[in-house]
Amino acid sequence: MYTYPELLHLVNQKISETTFGSNPKELYDPISYMMSLGGKRLRPVLTLMAHNVFSDEVHKSLDAALAIEVFHNFTLVHDDIMDNAPLRRGKETIFQKWNMPVAILSGDLMLIRSIDFLARTETSQFTTLLALFNDTAAKVCEGQQLDMNFESQSQVSHNEYIEMITLKTAVLLGASLEIGARIANASNEDAKHLYEFGKCIGIAFQIQDDILDSFGEKAEIGKRIGGDIASNKKTLLLIELLSSVHKDDLKLLQSLFVEPNTDAKIEGVLALYKKYQIKEFAESQKQQYLDLAHHHLNEVSVSPERKQLLFNTAHELMERVS
């Protein structure tokens, strides 16, 4: 069995050996730049991990793992444009370093290349993999649109929020695992259990992000606490507060939405979160999805030893502070 660092090394080596194209430079240089920014490469590593649950020949999933990482980075390129974000992993975003038309076109080509890499996978299940990959890509776009819709919606329900984070974040984690499992010739039932495991971990991961944004430690997470509060972002915490708050406190909350003093705004909303035990609610929601994830992983019909790395990785994701 491989370790996370060993699988990460295989992914990084694959990326370093891959040529995305060269001419015109203005089209291909941004792709190479984006792929060089690094990161934990969680999604492609999960693909190799899932393969390793059933087989030690993880190299057979490397092209698919690359496809998933290139697709993920494509979504980041376009997300940065939509969010007008100046930095990605501490470096200039593509549209800032080049310009917006270059970023759009390079991002489009990354999507095309991701399908090319998937097609290089030697497997009897390519049609199934392609259908899963394309369905996942469509769902990620749907999730991004729902997230943007929330900005102008006066009300968002718990179910709508969970649907959004499922589509925007969680389904790609699930697909990363299912693809690796299917290349390793796992049974349909085992592949689907790994998909559900990844999806549930993805939902818990996003809820954890919401919690950390409001209740993390600045020195540990490396960013200002309360960024979501400052921007009135409709996270699970704010949605629960809006559904729980008493009438008098609702007036206070509505005044905080337009409070010009950011520090006072964050402090006021955090006080309401504490009053209505919003952190405890979010933690319980996160735990429900973690429990469901563990249920699905337990159902995968291999020895516990072969699933241990996935258990450990899920635990480490929840223990992270950034």
Question: What does it look like?
Answer:
The protein is 75% helix and 1% strand. The protein has 322 residues and is mainly α. Strand 1 (87-88) and strand 2 form a beta hairpin. Helix 4 runs antiparallel to helix 8, helix 7 (126-150) packs antiparallel against helix 8 and helix 15 packs antiparallel against helix 16 (304-319).
Summarize the SSE layout with pairings.
Blueprint: H1 4-17, H2 25-35, H3 42-54, H4 62-83, E1 87-88, E2 91-92, H5 94-97, H6 100-119, H7 126-150, H8 158-183, H9 188-215, H10 218-221, H11 227-230, H12 236-244, H13 247-257, H14 262-275, H15 278-299, H16 304-319
Antiparallel strand pairs: 1-2
Helix-and-strand structural type: mainly alpha
Catalogue the unreliable spans.
none
Please describe the biggest sheet, giving its number of strands, its sense, and whether it closes into a barrel: 2 strands, antiparallel
Beta content: under 5%
Q: Bin the helical content.
A: over 70%
Number of helices: 16
SSE run: HHHHEEHHHHHHHHHHHH
Dominant shape: globular
- Averaged pLDDT: 95
Neighbour order of strands in the largest sheet: 1-2
The N- and C-terminal alpha carbons lie at a distance of 28 Å
Number of strands: 2
Summarize this, please?
The protein has 16 helices and two strands. It has 322 residues and is an all-alpha fold.
Question: What keywords describe this structure?
Answer:
single chain; 322 residues; mainly alpha; two-stranded antiparallel sheet; 16 helices; globular
